[in-house]
Target: Intestinal mucin-like protein
Amino acid sequence: MPLYNVTDYDGWCFSAFCTETCGIVKHFAPCSTAVTSSPTSPTTVPKLNCLNTYPPRKNGESWRSGNCSTNTCVNGSIIVTKTQCKPTKTPVCVNGYSPVKVYDDSGCCFQEECRCLCSGWGDPHYITFDGTYYPFQGNCSYVLVKEIYPKYNFSVIIQNYYCDAPDHLSCPQSLTVYYKSYEIMMTQKDINGIFKNLVYINNKQIFPAYKNSDFSITDNGIDTLLYIPDINAWVSFRGLMFSIDLPYSKFFNNTEGQCGTCDNNRTDDCLLPNGTVISSCPKMANHWKVHDNETCPPPVNPTPPPHPPVCNRTICELLKSKVFEKCHKVIPYEPYYEGCSFDVCHMPVPIGCSTLQMYASLCAAAGICVDWRNQTHGVCAYKCQAPKVYEPCGPLVEPTCNLRYNKMFFSSKNEYSIIRNMFGEGCYCPPGSTLMSPKSDVCMKSCDVCMLPNGQWKEAGSVWTIGCDTCECLNNTLTIDCEPMECPYQPPLHCNQEGQVLVTEEVDCCPKAKCACNSSLCSPKNFTCDVGFTKEIIMGPCCPIYFCVPMGVCVFNNTPYQPGDSVPEGPCVDCVCGASTVDPNTKLHVIECTPKVCDLHCSEGYEYQDVAGQCCGRCVQASCIVHLPSQTVHIVQPGTVWAAPNDPCIKYECAKIGNQFITTEYIKICPFFNPASCIPGTVKTGADGCCPTCVQKCNVTTNSTYLVSNGCRSSNQVILTTCKGSCDTSSVYSLQSRTMEYTCSCCQEITTTEKQVEMTCPDGSTFTYTYLNIEQCGCVQNECPAKAAGSSSILKKP
Model:
């Protein structure tokens, strides 16, 4: 806008004008004047420059203005010509998305082209750049998109995980974008039940909003959005879902991976790494596994049930409803409805929300913000980490108290300015508050704060202590003013106790005098206590104090005795240490004594004997003492043997060896006795009264032994039998013959058998030997031997 244009009398022109940025530009130069020629010469009119512009323009010079027009300086005047654009042609996009306008470098003319938008969500569902929908349950790292012919060094890798292990359904876990020399990873972390977005650039965590000369990253608490202006690429990640939006003009026919080929042709979407196109995109997807992760198991294709499950698709019907009606013309909802139906039938109900969230985010990216969560009756409610609250249509970059940050994203006009006009759902500070910084979750009612070097902040007017300084956040300048602390007055201190010294130390940044202890200044003490007293020590202010305390005992002959203990004062008195009486002078317990009474009674087997030099004698053993099982005691004199009357098989012998009385117990063990083998009437007790005896009947007896014959011996022991026992023998006087008549019988074999045994000779030869075995014995009548005349005659007178 011209301000003035004047000349002086010396032929100089002066001009000034206001620029588009409201700056005043002044210009002066010799004025162009007409040349007066002679009547015979023609008149020449000079061309004028455009001096009223900034910068000044020469005649014939053209330049572009900011309103899609071209300005030309023509003889001092500016001629404005509108930019002429070629007619546009609206393409038919097979993915169903509305075409987008792509402006040329002038920003005035545009052409329409299809969007190359790839998205994934849920378990997961995939939609390729050209709109092909397919499910894929792979638990690995895969290539979503990469350039066939490297041009921008751009690629995207997805890491899936089994989010519902029993059904082998997978979900996106992280998204890694490679661009130029950058590795940008977007993921989430569960913090106290709330998933928080995390972003790493070259393995270093950053906190959005963030931008550098190559890209910007924003995060509204739900979506993490990467924008690369040079290639006009948008990549978003929000936990269970992702989207990749690439310009058709830059990536046409130059993409491959699980997102397919960006060429507005669905027939080649299922492209394998070797260039082969197959008909199944789920099979194609597994071929794009990242090579350095070969340990991943192959994807599991869920077997569809024979009958489709009956599912509640109410939440999916919202996609068809008026809630999203404005978005239907821009983003086709059909593949998202199909994916939502699959999710609610195979996974917990809330996962259906991910499909709606995916669709709503694409609508927001197209400039259509939808408040859809309130229509789910709490099923898809989003919980933000306090103090932030959910907003369905908030800015991608939230203003903060950081002015430099705000200027970078909101004030300056650059290639990232498009972000400030974009909106979407997210977690924001409540109305009336401002986010402290992009790195914090603190919402401030006022941004009047002072920032500390450690990243913390103080409210304006607050006072605090740092080290030994008192600091204040000044209200008028919002700067920090620190002054050394003032120390209070301290009165003089005197240290006059033993071992004390005066020292000065720093307390709360101020010097403070105090009395400290130095043990080397304590006087040495060799302190001992008499018997019956114990040494106790208490600490004085610095040095120990010693004193003796009675132990509550009696003392005799320099020996302490506890109350109740016997005290050996003399042989004829019984003394004990008293329990209650204390000598007021010595502070010791008094010894109590009584004359000793001798006990003259001794136990059985003992006798009382006097002891020289003692008041009382003692009981000395005089015989052996036998304790019987009947709880009675019997005395056995030395050198005698005593048999128990009730058990004649046990005898006790008493012997005195030196001063010891030793009792020896003898127990007689009777051999086995069978009364049935005795002749009746012959059973009696032996002479010692212990074991029974009798006259045995004639019986077979056995004995095991080896048989020996001619130097040869039986290989094994054999049982030899004999007849043994008593038989009747009598002498009877006969009146008729007037002589003694004898009857004799002998115990001998009645029945025998022959048995054989193998005999072994010293030369190793063997033979069979036969011997008799007695089976039965009995008394056999024999002739009595003749008795010598007169030897057994008994004469008896009639």
